[in-house]
Request: fold
Amino acid sequence: MIKKYAELLIKQGVNLQPNQELVIDASIENYRLVREIAKQAYSVGAKDVIVHYTDEQITRLRYENCDREHFEKVPLYLKELRNEYALKNAAIITITSTDPNAMKGIDPQKISTWSKSVHQACSVFYDHLDLGIDRWCIAGAPSVSWANKVFPDMSDQEAVEALWRAIFQVTRCYHDDPVQAWNEHRCSFEKRIEILNQNKIQSLHYSNSLGTDLTIGMNTGYLFAGGGSYTTDGIYSFPNIPTEEIFTSPCKDKVDGIVYSSMPLNYNGNIVDEFSITFKDGRIVDYDAKVGYDVLKSIIQTDEGSHYLGEVALVPYDSPIRNMNILFYNTLFDENASCHLAIGKGFGECIENGLKMNKEELFEKGINNSLTHVDFMIGTSDLQIIATLENGEKMKIFENGNFVF
Reply:
């Protein structure tokens, strides 16, 4: 199964091309998967495979023992390394296995400071990913601590095996040919994307029993996308495995109202839960959280762009991941069980000719720019989304948490 999973990540996740370099970021616990990914990469003609291993316990020790100023400085080698990968158009696979409580009690300002510093120092690297120049894929693999959080009543081994089974199921690896299954999955998005793109939506209004009452304006020339994405070289890949979402980037200045979270947010090993965010003219003007308020504050205060939305994602409540009735405590999985929004950077592919634009041009068209991009879940079983079209007509998109078409 790990071999099938690794093949899927290479052939669909990043769609690795002959003579292309591959960079893998993963926890030391996932070495078996990483080795298999490397084998699959070389089998399709990879020029080289570079692996960066991480250790959450070492990372935590670093945050515990270094002062905040330490995280303002990014070593030159890290800056040059990442930016060089981008200039070589290397593909990036990131394996997520974060313990949901790994950074509990750590000053969130240290974490956000490091994230901001790295994005600034490695701007070429992140611009190549954000502007659709280089291909990347985020996928999951169990760690003992993550598995124990998801399946707390099992032994370590049982929990890890159960989490592997869940991951294989939601990534379609139990199919005889997962690569072909993802080709079919790609086609499943096309009808809804066509409807959303052809109806010239002016705004979307969200409402549910949690209290969400939010209106989100669309950009002129908006595009919904779903499943995977094309990079600027015309190659299709899946940045997220799994994925069940159809998404776009809204007009950064046309978001008004309040939205309530429907699931916990795991942000760099810290949990934020039962929170609300209020917008006026696109900007976040108020927020609250019963759990993780300081973490939410650190996300929103990353920069000016983190006060605005960068993504609107539509996911039916009756989705394969939601129907498993598993709370993964991992945004990659949980966001594909729920409609969600994202604070921060928007996507060039979500506006006409956007992949030919730079950050400044996208910003002028209404696509938000930020050093961060953080998804949070808002979907519920009674979520209603009604679109207002450019001609003033109303069009129902969601009823009782699901698409109406």
Q: What stands out?
A: The CA atoms of residues 98 and 146 lie 6 Å apart. The chain has two domains: 2-180, 190-403. DSSP finds 13 helices and 21 strands in the chain.
